[in-house]
Amino acid sequence: MSSNRPQVSVVVPVFQEEASVPTVFAHFIRTLSSQRRSFELIAVNDGSRDRTGALLDELAASEPRLRVIHLARNFGQTAALMAGFWAARAPIIVPLDGDGQNPPEEIERLCDMLEEGNYDVVSGWRKDRKDTWLRTHVSRAANWLIGRITGVKLHDYGCTLKAYRANVIRDSRLYGEMHRFIPVFTSMHGARICEVVVRHNPRTAGQSKYGYGRVFKVAVDLILVRMLQKYRTKPMHFFGKITQWSWLAALACLCFAVVQAIYALDPWKAFWGKAPLVAVMFFLLGCFSILLGLVAELAMRAAFEHNAGRYWEESRRVNFGPAGSEWPAHSLPAGEIRAPSFEETMRG
Fold it and tell me: Alpha-carbon distance 194 to 165, whole Å?
């Protein structure tokens, strides 16, 4: 393999795409080869059970610029993208869908805009989207809601085709369905974002892996993203607010019970009855919220920070150089520290 770093790393997560791989990846390689920038094409096989992995290996055998990561099982699109981002060597990273709906011809234009120096993220907008009416309109509603809640106004969060400066994306710690919120995470670190209209092709082979059941997952992740936006460095402030209002409610109930006892000339009413019981419930709610915040934070750190955010397992890699050199020395900019592998983390 050449020791020269590519100028663009194109990351493509694939799952059960045996019908698309031969034509789509051949088109990716032809198109990228005709563009000005040198490239590497990183395909992440997300535990496919069909012939997707074998077909990728066959293509990689004759094309050294195609590098393949095989995940041990299906970890989801977010994990597949993260694996590709961490393996990328170029200063610009561009993710693509593996179904061919994102045209690689747009990559050069997105990279040109990025290298003008004004932006850190150039996000694609599928203005003329080639999907079903229902899926398109559900997506539009979700994009409006995400922009409204997070303050990052984009027309198309779900478009995988985006160009990132590697320094704003390589250190991401994403999980769940959070790949669609990458612009939000980059904006939290001061990234400058713009949006451009890109073409969108209809699917010509295979079946879509997206179901409408993802809507609830996205809604839950949106709540988490908003909390991270506002309370990422001070999570106990959120739970502290719950405690504050719960204890104020408890105090109000106790005051009501005391006033009721005074008017009834019965001191026992200050200790027995519904109001004191509700006060105790609010007080316990405040205590539980603090404990819940501590437990949740400890669990999150144990699960994602102890192993540097890596929660997927790779079975093997293709075209990544000699065995044992997962991150060649030339793959990282000077002074950059690579993320440790899962095995290195477990060894301490």
Answer: 13
Helix-helix angle 214-231:133-150, to 10 degrees: 10
Q: Under CATH, which architecture does the 8-232 domain have?
A: Alpha-Beta Complex (3.90)
Residue 297: CB atoms within 10 Å: 13
Contacts of 304 (CB under 8 A, 6+ apart): 173, 175, 311
* Of 324, 70, 97, residue with least CA distance to 106: 97
Whole-angstrom Cα distance, residue 68 to residue 120?
26
DSSP symbol at 269: G
State pLDDT tens for residues 217-249: 666 677 777 776 666 656 666 777 788 888 888
What residue segments make up the domains of the chain, in order of their start? 8-232, 235-305
Neighbours of 172 (CB within 10 A): 19
Pairwise CA distance, residues 65 & 40, whole Å: 5
- pTM of the full structure: 0.69
Contacts of 125 (CB under 8 A, 6+ apart): 154, 155, 156, 159, 195, 196, 197, 198
Q: What are the CA-CA distances from residue 102 to residues 42, 106, 256, 332 (Å)?
A: 15, 8, 63, 27
